[in-house]
Amino acid sequence: MLRRRVLPGLVVLLAAAGSLPAQTTPAKVAPQTQEVAKAAALTKDPVDLKLQDALRERDAIIRNLLERVNELEWRVNGGFTTPAKVEERPTLPASSTSRVINSVVSTSTYDSTERQATEALDQALILRGGLLLPSGTLEVDHTTSYFSASSDHVTVNGFALLPVLVVGDIASERIREDYLLPNFTARLGLPHKFQGDFTIPYGYELIRTVDANNVQTSSSSFGLGDISAGVSRQFTVEHGKVPDILASVRFKSTTGKDAFNLQSSLTALGTGFNALQGNLTLSKSSDPVVFFGNLSYTANLPGNHTVSANDPTNPSATMVGHFKPGDAVGFQLGSILALNPEVSMTLGWDQRFTRSTTLNGVDIPASYLVEGALRLGTTYVYAPGKTIDLSFGVGLTPDTPNLQFSVGVPFRFGLWGAKPKKLDVH
């Protein structure tokens, strides 16, 4: 969403091409005798011949540059606008040619806000909620993410006589968690600045635990996660000091297997609770950078699940517990730098605070979470409408996975409106 200066640069080239000597109108001369006029008509001025050749060469250069301008406009818009055809024009004076060039630039295929810069930058903003797809455009995104988390626990069953002397049993364990989570996401641009999206997560989870005796136990799971859907709306378009403002609402289901299923030895791929999330995103351009910020609130809805009754006389006894998961407040801050029309770089910080979860009205210990991650990313457009998005994150709090890495490959299709058109790029 950046005002790139690609086309004005080509206009400079066109102006340079048009700087060749223009054909001038010969000045009026005094009446001469009929014999002198006939002799002048029979004689060809070599200077006029050179001027005509130069004008023909200039017109050929202008036609070539106009074709390149149209092709570049088509590529910048992701191939979703039909490139204008450049018609053969007769040789025109330099002033007329300048008017034609200005008309081509002013009627280019940019949208009314003139804020599309490159498809790479736009794609990075779309993934982060700072830009919506054009109406009638479908984007299918398959992103695979890898998460690695680890934690060490020390449990003391006894009491301390001195700060360095503990009487009792000391047990320690190391936990290593690896997640490989592909996500299938479909986004559809809707009229009136709306966008809908639908996400299906699935993947593989492996948890390994090593106790103080170096005995390792592991559990794994592969299957479907919690499906979610959302709708987004753009309320303002950047003008002056006013940024782009977008809002979205998402609902997360409980389709994934949760940790409360005591009959299963598989690890959880879902949370076990429905959730409703609201997001507010702002973005502001400052050539060649776009700054964005996001504020979110997630309401985790309560639910009932079967849990252990913690009865020493009957270890297998269970009861139905009423859970109220803690709501979460989060924000994102970052910037996207357009390196060229095909590549952009992203730098951002994610932060989220989750309140404690209660079971039957009693807080569950250590359920208050503080998550923070530093993220780096790059987006590369290898063909019109086809992009590769890479993201790398480092968790900087104990509640955040240590390593996060994702690879996304989105594809775009035109469902209605302007259709993509193939173009041979030389």
TrEMBL record:
Superkingdom field: Bacteria
Signal peptide: 1-24
Record-linked InterPro entries: FApF
UniProt-listed Pfam families: Phenol_MetA_deg (PF13557)
Keyword set, alphabetical order: Signal
UniProt-recorded name of the protein: Transporter
Source species of the chain: Tunturiibacter lichenicola
